[in-house]
Amino acid sequence: MNKRVDNNRRDYGGMNVDMKNYLRRIFSSVLAASLLCALMVPAAASAALGEDLLQKDVPVQRDTQLSTNVFWSTAYNDMRVENLITYRPGSSATPMVTYGSVLTSCNTVSSAAQALESQGYRVVAGLNGDFYNVNNGLPIGMVAAQGELKSSDGGYWAIGFRQDGTAVLGKPAVKVSADLGYELLDNGDFPTRVVRQLAAVNKARVSGGGIYLYTYEFNSKHTIGTTEPGVDVVCTIQSGSLALNGSPLVLTVDSVLADAAGTAVPQGKVVLSVHNQADAYALNAMKNIPVGATISVTAAPATGDWLDVQYAVGALYALVQNGSVVSGLPTDVNPRTAVGQKADGTLVFYTIDGRRSGYSVGASMTQVAQRLIELGCVTALCLDGGGSTTFTTTQPDAVNAKTVNRPSGGSERAVSNQIFLVASNQSSGQLSHFYVSTDNSYVLAGSKVNVTAAAVDTNYIPMSGKSYTLSTSAGEVENGVLTTPASGGEVTVTATGGGQSGSAKVHAVTTPDSISVKNGATAVTTLTVAPGSATTLTASAVYRHLALKADPEAFTWAVTGDIGAVDKTGKFTAGSPGTGTLTVSAGGKTATVQVNVSHIALATVEDFEAAAPELSSFSYGATISRVTDMNLVKYGRASAAVNYTIGADGTSSILFAVPYSIGSAYTQMSFWLYGDKSGNALTVLTSDGANTVETPAGSVDFTGWKQITVALPTGTATLAGFKLTTGINADGTATAASGTLYLDQLVTSYNNVVDTAPPEVKATLSGTSLTATITDAADKFPAQSGVSVTMDGKVVAFTYDPAKGTLSAALPVSDTYAHRVTVTARDASGNIGRASCDIAATGGEVQFGDTAGYWAGTYVDWLKTAGITTGYEDGTFRPNQSITRQQFAVMLYRYLGLDGSGYEANDLPFADAGDIGEYARTAVKTLYSMGILTGSEKNGKIYFSPGASLTRAQAATMIGRTQQKGYAQAALTFKDAASIPAYAAYYIQTMAAQKVISGYEDGAFRPNTSITRGQMAKILYNLL
């Protein structure tokens, strides 16, 4: 907020003491017993934005109403959400403009609101203001406060507010003139006063712009903001300010600085500045100002409408003029902020959210203009939008403002200035009405709604200690809970007390448009579960694109087939293996889930692929995070790092905030642990719903990965976490007090099954029809969530029967080239199996002049058609030529379809980074940042050797790092297996098992032989 001392006058956030006293006089003049003044309620139906879904209007001050409206856009098949304040000037609220400590100091709307509240104001509403230069925070257009011009308009639009709350929208076109305090003789030898029109006030100086005026509050450095040389005249403020009403700012010249740069602007002074390259008319006038001269500066708006404006803020675009949409507006769809004015002077402060699919897609400027015309505006301006769009208000039951919209960036953006409506925060002590709110406005009939009511006084300040009773037009209300009637309809719930009342409406829907079922956060139509497991499903209903609040009791659940039972809340307990259906219904609508109670002996508890679990606040000395360093991953692409510190009681607790549910049929749990050889004792914590049970899991006396299996106590319902306990080593020393462990692939099972074998996948092609069977020794048939089909590395839709492990897919082939089709299956223990087959080429030209009849020609052609390689400029591929390390980096980068834009700024650690070709630099940076590519150390430095040939071991390692872990590992039976480097062994084993890579006919692998471009083409093709 702007705070400065100037001529013994103290400013508070752009509002001086005189203004505060003025507002207090306005506030005190409001009759304490005044009733709510009805505003014209904006219609939610909008031709501009779409079908109206929801409308909520809340009076937040006398003659001031907050409206939140939701629309459905058929064009985008998505929603739009707008928030707006309708304000009638002359009410108990008053507009004002704020900015930071200086004009270029950006802050959020919320922080500006808090500053106003600390000064004794009630923030009725606030929103972001003008567009601004993101590099320096300088507003594009006009800023005025306390009737003083703080920054000139630059020819742009602006909105100005008077003390009575009325506003003017237009182009102020303020001309600022300076009588420079001396005279020159004209051609007739008559003295002429030297007066110059200033180019701008507190704007960035340009070379040909003329004379600029700078004040102390221009920027945080308190300088003129440029180091380009010019003539700067430093002046002391004698009296007045740069007022819009024409009263002068009187200055005395302290010094005239030639060839000055970065001149300071001390408090109580201003600087007049002109660039050395400006025209002589401006430059000479500044050079000739005598020290000690008196300068008079005045501001003159183009029309008298702006003379009594107290606050003003700029706007880059006009949206509506004379009741019509302005033509030629930008067409992009974004979050928007705008202000409009009706013919009677009523103001509309408006925002619409955007860039959030499923919530609000935003609008174009033309659509916002059309919407404001629908709301009755005849004039409207567009303020800064996009990530800047923010809307805050203080609800009638609150004392502090809160942001009511959802900024598109996920949090508020700091902006150059803000517009606020403020009112008194002093209670009148006289009850006006009750503000009634509900946690949901649209519910499935029969569901419950929480109702709250707050007493509000005649100054719209919440009152405590006021009792009330709740009544309802339908259904029942008790202890603040409304039970809507099963018959549905519009329900009005009313709070009454002290001779006053207030109400809110709830819409109880009997017939939703659709019903769906979710397992956790995922919508499901099929469900595969283990015998004896319990799965809590939730049903949801949608009406006119809005999710209805629906209690579990509002739905009816049923099971067909001998597969288990479901209770009235949707908790399904699986019985014996078999298939059947779960149905849920309400209001004549039904959703069906196909259920397979499988023979699966195992279930994944957590694989950390999505995220690390949150720890409970009761966890002691432990943190947990997701890790993607493949050296610390056992299965998939991620594990969890547990950093622990043993406490004074000798333990460290690792408690999950949300315990993992475990089906009652499971009798044991296995997990992979990367030990730190601390010697500490590990304990598994489980719960039966009432008591926590501790099961010892052994001593962490090892390093590297180890699979640990523990028995689950009878009746186990959840996995609550782990515990580490210190002890004494064999040599008598204490075990480690802190360290890091890594967890991966937590799996429950019954019948004492521990699974380390991958699923078996068999795939066949008939033309473009794919069929496959997937079996697993432990799981029998893996769940559909672990199965995928790709063609040339791109996902293909398929049909899968989890009860039989059979799969089919129609492949989208429309050309004559070769294609690689792969079926991949991951079981509950993280083991991965795959099978591939090929659609042979049926035609098409050979892509390179030297690959016709070549043994790997099909694979080389695929690389070209996939855009992975372009070959050489002479049209050859040179398949028998060794591939260099940087050539392969580019090929692998394109093969993986990576986007390197996020890695451009990363530094490479290689001593020979300067030798990397420009064509390969982005690929090398990206692959290095992802851990796929590394260098080699020589004489204490790391080298990439971009022009060196790539060996077969190096190629296998780099390619292998792109795969998730969990594939089978083939024994290294090559006759030269002993010469395979240790860093490459694992990757060669996994890719040999997948038949992605193989050796030579003589049984050798030749790990240190350079790999050819043709060999690489085949490996990349096989990897698909």
Overall SS class = mainly beta
How many extended strands?
Answer: 68
The total count of helices amounts to 10
- Cα gyration radius (Å): 37 Å
End-to-end gap = 58 Å
How do the strands of the widest beta sheet line up side by side?
Answer: 4-5-6-25-24-26-22-23
Amount of helix: 10-25%
Short précis:
The chain is mainly beta and 1024 residues long.
Account of the 3D structure:
With 1024 residues, the protein is mostly beta strands. The chain folds into 7 domains: 5-171 and 307-424, no CATH class; 175-300, no CATH class; 431-509, Immunoglobulins (Immunoglobulin-like, Sandwich), CATH 2.60.40; 514-597, Immunoglobulin-like (Sandwich); 602-749, Sandwich (Jelly Rolls); 760-839, Immunoglobulin-like, CATH 2.60.40; 857-1023, no CATH class. It has 10 helices and 68 strands. It has an 8-stranded antiparallel beta sheet, covered by helices on one side. Strands 14-13-20-18-17-19-16-15 form an 8-stranded mixed beta sheet, with helices on one face. Strands 39, 40, 42, 43, 45 and 46 form a 6-stranded antiparallel beta sheet that branches. α5 (857-865) packs across α10 (1013-1023) and α8 (952-960) crosses α9 (982-993). Mean pLDDT is 88; it is low at 1-43.
How is the topology of this model organized?
Elements: E1 5-6, E2 9-12, E3 15-16, H1 17-29, E4 51-61, E5 64-73, E6 78-87, E7 94-99, H2 109-118, E8 121-128, E9 143-145, E10 148-151, E11 157-161, E12 167-170, E13 175-185, E14 191-197, E15 200-201, E16 211-215, E17 230-239, E18 249-260, E19 269-275, H3 280-287, E20 294-300, E21 311-315, E22 317-321, E23 324-325, E24 336-342, E25 347-352, H4 365-374, E26 377-383, E27 391-393, E28 402-403, E29 417-424, E30 431-438, E31 442-444, E32 448-457, E33 462-463, E34 469-472, E35 476-478, E36 481-483, E37 489-497, E38 500-509, E39 514-519, E40 522-523, E41 526-529, E42 534-543, E43 546-548, E44 556-560, E45 564-566, E46 571-574, E47 578-586, E48 589-597, E49 602-606, E50 622-627, E51 639-645, E52 651-661, E53 668-676, E54 681-687, E55 692-699, E56 703-711, E57 718-725, E58 738-749, E59 760-766, E60 769-775, E61 787-791, E62 794-795, E63 799-801, E64 806-810, E65 819-826, E66 832-839, H5 857-865, H6 885-896, H7 918-929, E67 936-938, E68 941-943, H8 952-960, H9 982-993, H10 1013-1023
Parallel strand pairs: 15-16, 31-38, 41-48
Antiparallel strand pairs: 1-2, 2-3, 4-5, 5-6, 6-25, 7-29, 8-27, 8-29, 9-10, 9-21, 11-12, 11-21, 13-14, 13-20, 16-19, 17-18, 17-19, 18-20, 22-23, 22-26, 24-25, 24-26, 27-28, 30-32, 32-33, 32-36, 34-37, 35-36, 37-38, 39-40, 39-42, 42-43, 42-46, 44-47, 45-46, 47-48, 49-58, 50-51, 51-58, 52-57, ...
Helix pairs in contact: 5-10, 6-7, 8-9
